[in-house]
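Deliverable D4.2, example record:
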Amino acid sequence: MVIHHPDQLTKGEPLRRSFLRYQVKSLLAIPLATVDGRLGMIVVHHCQQPRHWQKAEVRLLEQLATQVAIAIQQAQLYQRVQTLNASLEQQVGERTAQLEDKMVELQDLQQMKALFVQAISHDLRTSVMGLLMVLKNLSTTEGETLTLPRHLLESLIRSGDRQLTLLNALCEEQTAECRPLHLAPQALQLQPFLLQICHQWRSACEQHQVNLNLKCDETLPPLQGDPHYIKQVFDNLLGNALNHNPPGIALTLAVQPEGSMVRFTLSDNGKGMEKDQCEHLFRLYLRNRHNQRLTGIGLGCYQSRQIVEAHGGHIGVTSSPGQGSHFWFTLPLAV
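Output generated by the structure prediction step:
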């Protein structure tokens, strides 16, 4: 709007009354326009006398109006950003508080689970230990014939010892999940150590009509490890091979050096496992795909992984349905 003289305005027009009231002689008004619409306007009054506004003055005021409109729009955007930030911070605070509540709830549930498992494992251990005491007392009886065959008695004792070991491992896992095993490593002569394990499993293999073949060179250097825990690894793997395969399979335990480590491989020609089962085998509570009632394989393999990794080695399995299984693990040689 460019008004050079009040006479440009008709009588009775509201703007003319404003001219008379404020003694305005000429006016130049430029709108403040943005993409969102008009914000207002810049108005220049000349009150001394009428004035003919030059084109340069109009262009200058238009440029000024553009800059002012941009500044106002940026200020509005900044205000929106500040509002959004405040809202976001509030949401983050609320989510953080909810997460903290969930963490507390999860800790409470973990504690309840640990107490439950401790109670159950304590009761189970008590019953197993009582049964083992009776069986071991019977085993000390002289003579080969008892009220039950001696080989069956030895199998019951070995099964009870293994169950007690697994129950102890489960209890330790719940009470101190991240605590490392307390190892007592020593130099072990491989062939005598493995021959002793195979001899202890001879009766169980005969009952399952399993032929256990040991391939171990007597010239192999000694193994560095805790004999108690390493024996548990072999007991777990041999027990799984017998319990989760049909009778009459062939088992081969092969030992060979591998740099500063020694590699053990327990192979069978049983029914094997699916690929996804092999990938999750060394986690807790994995059920056997062929017999849903058998659950010990999860804890036994998980315990074996803990023992092998505590010695600085690795453990794994390769298998496929109908092709048997190959469990392997490595342990360090004595320096």
